[in-house]
Amino acid sequence: MIRTQVVPIVWVVYSIACFYLVRPLRKFSYRALLTILPCMILILAGCHNLPYLHMKSVMIISFYWILTIRLIHLIVLSPEKSPSLRSFAWELLGSFIPIIKCESKHYVIFDLVSGSVKLLLNHWIYRWFLSCEPSDSYARMAMFYVWTCTGTYVIDAQIILVRLVTRDGYTLLPFSNYAFLSKSIREFWGRRYNYFVHKLLKDSVFEPIYRTLSVSSTVAALATFL
Predict the structure, then answer these.
(1) Do 158 and 97 touch, CB atoms closer than 8 A?
(2) Would 61 be classed as within a structural domain?
(3) Cα angle value 182/96/79 (rounded, 5°)
(4) How far is Cα of residue 38 from the mean position of the Cα atoms in its chain?
(5) What pTM does this model have?
(6) Is residue 128 assigned to a domain?
(7) Residues 6+ positions from 122 with CB-CB distance below 8 Å
(8) pLDDT of amino acid 13
(9) Sign of CA dihedral 121, 176, 172, 108
(10) Element (H, E) at 37
(11) How many folded domains does the chain comprise?
C-alpha cells in the first residue's frame, strides 16, 4: 500500500502520465481502464487511516473524488478538450478553485459572518459527536448532515479571499444557492442544493456521456448518478 503522505505526489505524477500516455490512446476501453483503476487504488491509499469525523478527512475524500471525476472527463470521455498540458492543468485546477465573475449583491461581511457561524457550529457538532455514544439514531444522522453542510466554512473563507483580492471582481462558485428558498424538490436538487457538485457532474459526466456516447438524456443522467 502506498504511504498516505506521498499519495498527493503520486496523484500529480499520475495525472501528468495520464495526459501524455493514456489520453492519446484511441480505444475508449483502454483509456477507461488505465484511468479508473489507478484512481481507485490511489483513493484507497489516500483515504487509509483518515481520522474519524474530522473535516480534514471530508476534504481529502472530496479532493480525490473530484480529481477522479475530472480525470475521467478529460482523459476518457473528452480527450480532445485539453490539447496542451497547460490547458489540462488549468482544467484540473478549475475543478477545485472554480472562479467566476462576482454577481453577488451582498457585501463580503455577509460571507464572513456566514463562515464564522458555520465554523462554530461545525466545531460544536464535532465535539458533540466525540462525547456521544455511537448509534444510528435519526438525531445523530441529522447532526451528521448539519456537520457536513457547515463544513462549507472552508469555501466561505476562499470566497472572502478571492473577493478581497479581486475587489469584488470575481468569486468562487458557491456550495449552494440558498437551498432553503427552494419552492420544489426539483428546484432544491437541480438548482440550489450542492450547486458545486451539480455543476461538476453536469460538465464532467452528463454532457460528455450524452455527447460522446450518443445516448439519451435519461441514460446519461442515470450514468451520472451511478
Answers:
(1) yes
(2) yes
(3) 105
(4) 19
(5) 0.74
(6) no
(7) 55, 147, 150, 151, 153
(8) 94
(9) negative
(10) helix 28-46
(11) 1
Residue 70 counted as domain residue: yes
Residue 70 and residue 47: Cα distance in Å, rounded? 19
Instruction: List CB contacts of 103: < 8 A, sequence separation 6 or more.
Output: none
Q: What is the pLDDT of residue 71?
A: 93
- Identity of residue 138: Y
Residue 58 near residue 151 (C-beta atoms within 8 A): yes
At 183 the three-state DSSP class reads coil
Spatial separation of the C-alpha atoms in residues 180 and 184, rounded to whole Å:
10
Residue 45 backbone dihedrals phi, psi, to 5 degrees? -70, -40
Positions in the chain short of pLDDT 50: none
CA distance 73 to 91: 10
Coil, helix or strand at residue 65: helix
Distances 175 to 79, 180, 194 between C-alpha atoms, Å:
28, 13, 5
* C-beta separation of 76 from 18 below 8 A: no
- Using DSSP, state whether 121 is helix, strand or coil: helix
Q: Which domain holds residue 89?
A: 1-97
| Contacts for 79 with CB less than 8 Å, ≥ 6 apart | 23, 24, 31
Please give the single-letter amino acid code of residue 136: D
* pLDDT score recorded for residue 4: 65
pLDDT at residue 75, rounded to an integer: 93
| C-alpha cell at position 35 | 484511468
Three cell numbers, residue 222: 442515470
67 in a domain, yes or no?
A: yes
Length of the chain: 226
